[in-house]
């Protein structure tokens, strides 16, 4: 049996196995004469099963069942005298710190050594989260600044490019008030799709980020009870800032509408 916290289920990847059954396994074997790591096959006998809640700490090969052997048997099979990972589970949680300190004292000078507890894993994940939070905040600030500039510049530049056409409308009898109303409507309608798209992309990114954190927590063997919450406050702030930007741009456009000289515009002097 093999238990994966990622899928929250128990999988019998080697079905119908019993004690004393023989299995043919393929494993890496180090050839000392050639210095090449090869794959060999050998038969092993089933002498026991790991518990259902034995799971890997790393994110690689998490659907491959573990095979536990004595280190001497491991050396004979693979011709390799070191192991990649050992996981220890204790019934007495109070003794964990004591064992961790003993391992640290014995192996901390080895460059291949790394020892993790749930506490150290959480600390490392928190460090990653702080770095990613800074990256997200900087990216959000840059994108928000670009949105503000695009909204204001887009509305004002669009007006300036079509200024002669607006002068023609005024010369045909349209009131400046109606022109302002039309510009306000066109400006808002042209900006809304971009705002909606930005909100949708942000939600998709947040959902993917939430699922990634949930996956990493499962891989690390950490219980994850959080639920996805809609970042409604950030969305409201974004909409308010965009609305203020639109109002600022329209205030500039309204002033330019009042300053339109119909004759000069029609003569292409402005």
Automatic annotation (TrEMBL):
Q: Which domain of life is it from?
A: Bacteria
Q: Which UniProt keywords apply?
A: Membrane, Transmembrane, Transmembrane helix
Q: Does the keyword Membrane apply?
A: yes
Key word Transmembrane helix present: yes
Q: TM segments? A: 141-162, 183-205, 232-254
- What is the designated name of this protein? Efflux ABC transporter, permease protein
